[in-house]
Amino acid sequence: MKEVIAVTGPMASGKNYICSQMEKEGWVSVDADILVHQAIELVKDKILQKFIPFAQRQNIKLTKEDGSIDRKALGRLLFSFPELLAIQESMVYPIIIQQILQFINEHEKAIINATVLYKTPQLLAYCDKIIYVKASFFKRLARALRRDKLPLFQILKRFNAQKNLLKEYQKVFPKEKIEIVKN
Question: What CA–CA distance (Å, rounded) separates 82 from 5?
Fold first, then answer.
């Protein structure tokens, strides 16, 4: 019998650590962030066509020297304009959904490691349980500064965008199937 668990929580809360511990018990995880990065490159031309005018107005260059998407620059743009984030999601989510469904089909004990899985109800429907990972603001901030090398204001924008994350999951998933883990 297949088992599917979502491991979620805000940025730098420790989702990867929780997944690594579960993998020691025979689970296999897929990191939705990595899939997003891959999907962005697959729809790069659409993203650039749609977002370059906005980026130019903000003096943001969306591509690196090698022509690939500069994800940090794209993130700066998307977290400044939530309507653009929704447009990008409409481009990449269909790809990610397909990849994760294939992953689920290939594994008996699958973990979906994703911050905003609530935005894809078709994937949430496969989940038997959600593990919501929490950590203190300061612990998350220290981790994000060390790991992501982003300016403080960008990290704080992302934290702010995720401040009601648990409530979003509680709206769309049975509360008794959400386990909160402090990390």
Answer: 28
Q: In the chain, which ranges are E strands?
A: 3-8, 28-31, 109-113, 129-134, 178-182
Three-state secondary structure call for residue 25: coil
Predicted confidence (pLDDT) per residue in 24-76, tens digit: 999 999 999 999 999 999 999 999 999 999 999 999 999 999 989 998 899 88
Q: pTM value? A: 0.89
pLDDT band at 154 (very low <50, low <70, confident <90, very high): confident
β partners of residue 113 = 7, 31
Pairing state between β 109-113 and 129-134 = unpaired
Asked whether the CA dihedral 9, 11, 12, 15 is positive or negative, the reply is: positive
Alpha helices in 13-70 (DSSP H): 15-23, 32-42, 44-57
Asked whether 29 and 131 are in contact (CB, 8 A), the reply is: no
Q: How far apart are CA 109 and CA 5, in angstroms?
A: 8
